[in-house]
Structures are given as structure tokens and as C-alpha cells.
Design brief:
Layout: H1 3-13, H2 19-33, E1 34-38, E2 44-50, H3 53-67, E3 73-78, E4 85-91, H4 94-103, E5 107-108, E6 113-114, H5 128-142, E7 143-145, E8 154-158, H6 161-173, E9 179-183, E10 186-191, H7 194-203, H8 207-257, H9 265-276, H10 282-288, H11 295-311
Antiparallel strand pairs: 1-2, 2-4, 3-4, 5-6, 7-8, 8-10, 9-10
């Protein structure tokens, strides 16, 4: 199961305590997947149809918890469009249908049917708890998230610019920064920062997914820190080896051309110690001298030897 689906499964079980919160989430589901059809009996039906069973199950749960409706039917049907499974939730009672659509501010009183609109009524998003429920519904219906092992990316695929704008505003109300981009006929609201995704999961109250993501982030950070440390130490080691090789080559050039006896006593001693201990660090080389000197002194003498070798 993908991490994205794990988040959705958790959000499906997260039900708002207050009635107005459940209505806000229900509005998102109906806006995204709801429609009104007339059955062969002439009776109007409110249908939610999706290839994701999670959405239809959440739809029925919200109807039951909010309106005491239990006469809906969950029917897996075969789609003629993509040869895949679709799931439909059908509410067959016209009076109840009107009650539900009026509650979510989607009832067209003139035509006695569902009103077409591009986003959720702002009346339903007055309080912070309703905005949390709205974001849960949006992720269930249009959200996806990459595997945090591979990278951090959360997005909502919106059908129109109005919905994307509303989503951006609600996310911003919780102090989380999101961006939007046009992708073919869709408007994509996305977040790429791991810390911001964690905050949004907390807002949606997906706490288990949040902890799983945080664990992954910590392990990745430890791995990255270890890699950086190893790379740094390796680079320093290579740098030290290259410097030692260059010093030895210079001393050997002086020895072969002029002889080490031509050097002042402190430089001659330094040259002989470096040749004797080619793998020693500057601190170790200083201890081999008589009297011992510090790393800065060793570095000074080696630099003078290098200047003599360069002139040769």
C-alpha cells in the first residue's frame, strides 16, 4: 500500500465531532463526486461515484453520523469508460436528498436539484475545525503524496481555479505555505517542504501518518548527516595525503639536486623526519622533532622546504 493511501485510510476514520465539521467535509465529497440522477421510477437519487471505495465509505459514514441516514447503498459497479471498478453510494429518498444538499449549500430551490458550483460555500468554513474537516475531504478526494523515502511532495489536483484558490487560502490560514501550478486542465496545489507537509498532516489530524513521516525524516537526516561526515573526513584525508606526497616529492628533489646537508639544521631535521614518517600528521611530525614543536611550526618549515623545492 502506498503512503498516500495510508494517509487516506487514516483520514477516512477521522470523523469531526461537531455536526458543522462533518457537513464541511461532506460538501467537499459532493462537490467532487456527487450528482443527481432520475431513476427509472422517476425518483431522483443523490449519487456519489468514485473509483476509490474509501471516499464512498466516508460519504456514508458522514450521512449516518450527521443525518441519521442508513438507507444508502454501496454498489461496486463496472465502469464502461476505463474497464475498472467504480463504487457508488446512492441516496434514494428525495426528501433526505434535499435536506443534505441544503445543509451543504448546494440545493437549487428553483430547479429542485443539485446546484452546480466550483467551490465549497464559505459559510461552511467559518471555524478552524470546519477548515480542518474541509482539508481532510480535499485530500481524500483530490490529494496524493509521494513516498517519503524518495522525497517530499504533497499535492491536490483541483478541477478549477476557484477551488485551488480556496484550498490555498484555507491552508494558509493554518500558517502552512503552499503553491499552485497549472497542469493541463487541472490546477495543482502542492507542498514540497517536509516540515510543511508534517504540519498539514497535523492540521488534518492524520497523527499516525505524521509520526511515520517524522520517523522517516529522522532516519533520512541521520543518514544524510553520516554521509556528509564521511564525505568530509574522506575529503580531508585525501587532501592530507596529497599534501604529504607533494612535501615528500619536494624534499626528494632537494636531496637529489643539492643534498639535504645544504639545508639549515631545522629544515634538514624536518626533511629527514618527513621522509622517515610519510604517513604522519603535522602534530605527529612535531613530536618526532627535538625539541618538539607545534603544528604551526611544522607547517612553516614544510612550507619553506616547498619554496626551496619550487625554485629548483
Amino acid at each position: 500500500m502506498s503512503f498516500s493511501q495510508e494517509v487516506k485510510d487514516e483520514l477516512e476514520k477521522q470523523i469531526g465531532q461537531a455536526r458543522h465539521c462533518r457537513i464541511a467535509e461532506l460538501a467537499v465529497i459532493l462537490l467532487s463526486y456527487g450528482r443527481v440522477e432520475t431513476a427509472q421510477t422517476g425518483q431522483k437519487q443523490l449519487i456519489v461515484s468514485s473509483e476509490h471505495e474509501t471516499i464512498v465509505r466516508k460519504y456514508f459514514t458522514l450521512l449516518k453520523k450527521t443525518f441519521n441516514i442508513e438507507n444508502g447503498v454501496l454498489n461496486p459497479v463496472i465502469s464502461t469508460e476505463n474497464a475498472g471498478h467504480m463504487f457508488e453510494g446512492v441516496l434514494e429518498d428525495e426528501a433526505l436528498m434535499e435536506t443534505v444538499l441544503k445543509a451543504v449549500k448546494m440545493w437549487n430551490d428553483e430547479k429542485q436539484t443539485m446546484r452546480k458550483q466550483s467551490d465549497v460555500s464559505d459559510v461552511l468554513l467559518k471555524s478552524a475545525c470546519c477548515k480542518r474537516a474541509f482539508l481532510r475531504g480535499c485530500f481524500l478526494c483530490a490529494g496524493s503524496m509521494s513516498d517519503p523515502q524518495k522525497g517530499y511532495h504533497l499535492e491536490y489536483l483541483c478541477n478549477n481555479e476557484e477551488m485551488a484558490g480556496q484550498l490555498l487560502k484555507v491552508i494558509a490560514d493554518f500558517g502552512v505555505e503552499a503553491k499552485t501550478v497549472r497542469r493541463k486542465k487541472y490546477y495543482v496545489v502542492y507542498i514540497k517542504e517536509g516540515a510543511s507537509i508534517v504540519e498539514l498532516l497535523n492540521v488534518m489530524e492524520a497523527h499516525i501518518s505524521l509520526m511515520n513521516l517524522e520517523n522517516t525524516r529522522i532516519l533520512k537526516e541521520i543518514g544524510n548527516h553520516t554521509n556528509r561526515k564521511v564525505n568530509c573526513e574522506t575529503a580531508n584525508l585525501i587532501k592530507a595525503v596529497n599534501a604529504a606526497n607533494k612535501q615528500i616529492e619536494g624534499i626528494e628533489r632537494i636531496r637529489d639536486v643539492k643534498g639535504l646537508d645544504s639545508l639549515p639544521a631545522p629544515l634538514r631535521e624536518m626533511a629527514e623526519v618527513r621522509l622517515q614518517y610519510p604517513d604522519a600528521t603535522l602534530g605527529e611530525l612535531g613530536n618526532y622533532l627535538s625539541p618538539p614543536i607545534g603544528k604551526s611550526g611544522v607547517n612553516h618549515r614544510l612550507r619553506k622546504l616547498g619554496e626551496i623545492a619550487d625554485k629548483l
